[in-house]
Each structure stands twice: as C-alpha cells, then as structure tokens.
Specification:
This is Carbohydrate ABC transporter permease. It is found in: Cell membrane. It is a single chain. The chain is built from 15 helices and no strands. The chain is mainly alpha-helical. Helix 3 crosses helix 15. The longest helix is centred in the N-terminal third of the chain and has 41 residues.
Amino acid sequence: MERTEIRSKRLEPVVFHTFNTVFMLLLVVVTLYPFLHTLTVSFNEGNDTLRGNLYLWPRAWSLQNYKAVFISGTIYHAAFISVARTLLSTVLGVFLTTMLAYTLAQPHYIFRKIIGLLFILTMYFNAGLIPNYFLIKSLGLLGSFWVYVLPTLVSAFNLIVIRTYIRSLPGSLVESAKIDGAGDFRIFLRIILPLCLPVLATIALFIAVGSWNAWFDTFLYASSDIKLSTLQYEMMKLLGSTMNTNTDPALLAGTKMNQSQAMVTPASIRAAITIVTAVPILFVYPFLQRYFVVGLNLGSVKE
C-alpha cells in the first residue's frame, strides 16, 4: 500500500508537467496560427492563393503583394505621420494622465471626487460624432497634425487605472520626501513616475496600439490633405480599391507593370497590409512586457 502511494506521488508531477506542456503547446499553436497563416498568404502569389489549401508555408513565393503596398510614394510619408502621432500621443498622454492621476490620488485635494466623477461620466455619455466634429472645427484642429494628438491626451479609463496604482503605493514614501523638503512636482518626477513604470508601460502600450491603428480620425478631420494622411488610412484606401475592383493596386496607381507578374488578389493584399501594420507593434511589445509582471516598488518601504 505504501509503495503504491509513493509511486502515485512520484507520477503526479510527471503527469501534471506533461499535461501542462502539451496544453501550452496547443495554446501557442492556436494563438500563432492565424498570424503565421497571414504571413504565409502575404508572401504567396495572389493567383496561387485562390487555390486554397495554404497553411504555414508559401507554395509560390512572391514579393508582389508588398510591392503593391509600397508602390505608392505616399506610403512612406504616411508611415512617418503614423510614427510621429504614435510617439507624441504616447509620451504626452502617459505623462499628463499620470500627473492628473497623482493629483486626484492626493487625499488632501478637495476637488478630487468632483473631477474624478466628471471623468467617469465621459465613459458612459458621449455627445456623438457630429458634436465632436464641430468641437474639433471650433478648436481650429481641422486639417492640423495636432488633431491626432490633443483630443486623446487624457483617457478616463487610463486615469482610473493609474490613480488606483498610485493609491496602492506606500504613503510613507511621499511623506518622507516632503519631510526632506521635496515639492509635489519633484516627488512626482523622482518617486511616483519611477515606481509607476509597470502600469505606465501597460498604458503606453494601450495608447500606442490605439494611435497606430487609428484611421477614422484621418478620414473625418484630415482626409483632404494628403500630407496628413496616416499609414492605416492609406492601407484602408488600398484595401478598398482591391475589394471594389478586384484588380491590381499597382495598375490602379498608374504604373506600367506586367499584370501577370504583379497581379494580386484581395486576400493576398489584405494579408500584406495586415503584416505591414502589425510588425511595428510586435517590435515594441517585448520592451514593455517585463513591466507587466514585476513592479519597481519591490524592496521599498513596507507597511
């Protein structure tokens, strides 16, 4: 009887780790397969893709899908605008939202509940598309680059998340800094910001992904100015042209190319567009991932 119990105890970790490994491998396959399949389609010849049965490796390698995406000279300037708006929106949005969250997290600030309630109300009530358009117009932001940055600087959801995180920090850190003569702004820069890096990295990723993927604001506020066009808006127009006409985007752009060599299909051009717009975010994520789990306030004052 004792030998049976000992064997079962020895087998339990083996069975658990085996099951856990198999389950995680299946989860990885299910998670990565859509992206890998899209990558395969993007590098496969458009006409060959229509045959189907294309999984994780291209049958007919071709770069024509990407050539069709980058054939227009406006793509590169649009990519610059997308990068600029993403960087400015992320940096300014994180800094200003954290500053406001720190202010509203102070127990001695008498207007913290009223201001917090006003921000929460914006999460439930929206004036609508037309009032927002007239607001942007009255602010003189139509046809301006800052229409991409200023309206989204402070988010109520991000504010609540950062404020909650700041409230969880040891209060004695701020108290000891004030005893040493530090002011609120110095405390914010030297203590609060470094300790909030985990939550700020998460919020920064939210803002960056939202700004990078946005195209509807370009359609509403800056579609008439090609110099303010974003990468996603150009990709949307290209995808719309292929879906509506089912012809080669290179031919639509007015370039003289051999149609048999440059032919793409809606499915192949859609895959190439997806990869082009997703890859920059994939390169950013690994630098922020480590902040999602481990907080920098470990080892500080415990209460």
